[in-house]
Every structure is written in structure tokens, then in C-alpha cells.
Amino acid sequence: MSSNVSNRMPTRVPVSLEAHEKLRSVQGQFLELGQLGTIYRIAALLSLKRNGYQEERPAEMTLDSERIHARLRGPLEIHHRDLPIIFPALVQLSAGKTLDPEDIYRQVSYHIHLGAELLEDVVKDVNSLEGLYELLMDEVPDGFETEMASQFHSDGNGMVLRLGEQSATEEPYDWPLTDTSQTENPHACIVGVSGQGKTQFALDILYQIRQQNPDVSFTIMDYKGDLSEPGSSSRRMLENHLGCDVITAGKEAIRTVPFQNVSSQQNDQYVVGVTDLIAKFYPSLGGQQRYALRQCLEELIATHSGGFGFNTLEKKVEEFYEENGRNPDGLSDAVHRLSVSRAFEDSPSSLMPEPLITQSLSLRLNELEFNSLPIAFLVVNRLYDEMKQLPDAERQGSVFNLRHVVFIDEAHHYLSVKSSPLALLIREGRSKGVAVLLATQSVSDLSGTAGADYRQYLSNSFFFKTNLNSASEIRAMLPASGQQVARIADQIATLETGQMLFSRNIQKEPSESVLQAVQFYRRGL
Q: Which of 36, 199, 397, 402 is the most exposed place for a label (fewest CB within 10 A)?
């Protein structure tokens, strides 16, 4: 019953601002739960148990449907181990009758509002995530039957993705993404020239991840804007099946501030790191300009507890220069360019729904007036800073819980930056449950000629037809003998459209298969 109902559901539930603010506060206590939608569902569960079926909207509940929305997508489940709680079935059980999808979502909306206060009170006495889950299990009505489903599969392989069919045998081929006994890490490159099917393959992989765990969140970097072109099938996929908000940078603000507040112990390291990151994209900044930028950042961090944006930084730089009798220079110009981009919010807003790493966003970067790379890297830097604050991902044996996926299309634009936060995000991501997928046109892009060598971080490689520059590049990606390298090069050169060679490293031992790759458009969704 539940899966049929959820497939016909609307994609958004309006939530009262009062409830939203209370549950945002609760999320800060349990960041490892992921997206704010999970907290919404927990609140609704508490209210369903304690308040029962509601025919009317609570009198004090007011909605701002233009601004606040909870995203309750997919099967509408709360996952705990192998026991999901299915909302359509639970709402109808409480109502004692069959309801249409609109009625179910309306009831979920009411119960989020009613449950926010209950949950806010409950968590005062809960000191751990496990304690919260135990409380939730106690709230499930007696006699309520659940469906068995989990990202921790009963076969112990974790999240398993269908990559396609083996070309030689037409047998299906699966990828145990989150089982570290089967692959060293979940990170991957997708390499191939245009028109070979790598984008549709990537979309299908993201779709499967979302289907297996509705609480995984996504950050998608769309450098050229092709993936999120208005009216395109890929944009509908991002919005309707991944639950992403599409943000056109420069026309609407990314819902975070670029600079965070840090403790006094972290201040020096953070300021130096951000200064160096900005200076990478504005090489005209000399020693004096970097010193001024550090001074301004340090003072703003000390006085802006919630973080701040470029407008605030620009005003501070102007003030610093006036106080020190200096004329505007390259720093003034760089900070002004970032400020007028309007890519981020300037100060924390009560309407910011959640930390960046628990949002699902697709960022269109092609309409920024100036260079989009500083904006993209500040997003990655913020993701990395937020990721570091998370506890390690939950594990069962060799299987870990996937929390967040970063997909970067046209990745070659990002791979030549020295000391990149992207390299740090990839290197440290597995322990935190973060996977990074990089799509590019050539293996040489991944060598990061002027930056990090990304080949050492990526355990999984998907090669569509591409132009490989040398045998040494193949060997760097795939530990293999000379004869194997020659054979692999021949295989890649002769691949047909939609075919790929998949290689993964298992304890430094390569494993390759030629596959007819899955393509999202074939699902007809």
C-alpha cells in the first residue's frame, strides 16, 4: 500500500515557520540524522502516536507556503537499522480509513507542526542518537506492520547499485558502493568524451542511491548549466527524483554564508585557509593584501557569531583601508566582485533550512557574471568544514552509512587548484559517509597537473570512449602490467556508445569489466 501511495504523492509539504524553527534547532543536536526532512518525519511520528488523526488544521498553525517547505520524498520512511516506519500506512492506520495522497500529506503537515513542540521537549532528556531511536521505536503503534527495507541490506553488502550488463554475457553487474571489503572507498571518476552516455549513467547512479536511501543528500555542481537547463529532462530528474533545489548562482542565493564562525583555537588556521583559497583565484593579491584580508576576516569572525557573507566583508575591507589611509587596490576589487555576484546569503537567516551538507542542491554556475570557480570552491570548503563536525558514519561490519554525495560535472575545471578543499573532502569523506563522483573527458584531467593528483583518491573508475594520452596514465588509474595496460587501452578505444569499462581496486588488486551501462532516460520517468 505505502509504495503505491507515495509514488502519487505531491513533492512538497508546507510546514509552519514556528515548527520549522523548532526542528532546525533539534537538527543542530543530531546532525548525523542528515536532512531536515528526517527531523520533520520524526516530529510527525511523535504527534501521530500522541494526538491521533486530525481532521482540522490546528488553530495556531499558520503557513507561509511561498517560503517554507519540507521535502518528504520517495517512500516516506524513517530508517532505523532494518526497520523503516512508513508514513502513508501509519497515517491511514491512525485515521482508520483510506485516504487519498493529498489528505495524507495534509495530515503529515499537521503532525509536523504538532510534533515539533513534542520533539523539542523530548530531546531535552535524550543524550544520544541511539536514545532517540529507542524512543521512536516505542512510539510505533501496537500492531503496526512495517515493510523490510534498509540501506544495510540483509546480505551484508550495503548499498548495491546496478551498473548495467556485462557485454560478453549480458549478465547484470552490481557495484557494492558502501562495502569497504569490496572497494577501498566510494569515490569514482566517470571519464568519456561527449555523447558517449556518461551523463545519463551518472544520473542513473544518483537515482539508485536516492531510491535506496531517501535521506542521502546531494550537492551537484553544474558548471555549464546543461544538467539543470529549465524544462530539460535532467532538471526534472534532479528536482523530482533527487529532491534537489536548483539554485542559479548570481540570480538567487545559495542558502548558506561563505564564512563561518569558528572557535578561537581554530581561528588562525581557518583564516589562513580561507585567505589562501581566495588568493588562488586572484593572483594579484600580494603580501599586503593578504595581510589585510586576514585582519578583516579575524575581526568579523570574532564579532559575527553566525557567520557572514561578502557584503559584510566588503564593508570591513573598506573600513580597514580608510583607517589605515590606504587606497583601493586588488583586494578591494576582488572582494567587490565576489560581493556583487550575490551568490551567497550575507548573514544567517531564520529561513535557512539546514546546514549545507544536509541540503540537496544543484548549483547552476554558468550565469555568474564573474569567474564561478571561487564560488564553487567556497561551497566545497563549507561542505568540508561541516563534514568535519559530523561524527563518523554509522557502520555495520565493513558497510558504512552513506550520508551525502557530491557530483561534479565538467570536473576538469576544478582539478588543477593547489591545496584544494575538494581533495580534502575526497580524502576524508569515506569515514564521514560522503562520496564524490567526478565526471570529466580525459584521464589527464585527474592528474591535477598544478594541483592534487586525484587518481590516488578514486578507487572506482568508469571509462567510456575517451582519448587516453599515454599508457602511464592508464597504469596510474589501474594498477596493471604492461600487457594488461595495452589490452585495457584497446578496449577503451573500441567501446561503443553506451558501453564502458568499469575498474575498481580491491586491496590494491584491479578488477575490470566491460559493461553496457545503465542510462537514466531508459527508465521513462
A: 397
pLDDT at 287: 92
C-beta atoms surrounding 507 within 10 Å: 8
Are 210 and 241 contacting, i.e. CB atoms less than 8 angstroms apart? yes
Of 113, 139, 40, the residue nearest 353 (C-alpha): 40
Q: Give residue-wise pLDDT tens across range 352-395.
A: 446 888 888 999 999 887 888 899 999 999 999 889 888 888 88
- Give strand pairing partners of 233: none
Report whether 64 contacts 76 (CB < 8 A).
Answer: no
Q: What angle do CA 461, 463, 464 make, to 5 degrees?
A: 150
Closest CA to 421 of 257, 274, 217: 274
Q: Return the bridge partners of 86, or none.
A: 77
How many Cα neighbours within 13 Å face the side chain of 467? 5
Write out the DSSP string of 32-86. Answer: GG-SHHHHHHHHHHHHHHHH---SS--TT----TTT-EE---TT-EEEETTEEEE
The string over 88-102, giving b where at least 16 C-beta atoms fall within 10 Å of a residue's C-beta and e elsewhere, is bbbbbbbbeeebeee
Burial of 80 (0-12, 13-18, 19+ CB in 10 A): middle
pLDDT at 72 (0 to 100): 47
Distance CA 186, CA 458 (A): 8
Partnered with residue 220 across adjacent β-strands are: 362, 407
Cβ-based neighbours of 8, under 8 Å, separated by 6 or more:
101
In one letter, which amino acid is 247? I
Of the candidates 458, 414, 407, 435, the residue with the CA atom closest to the CA atom of residue 221 = 407
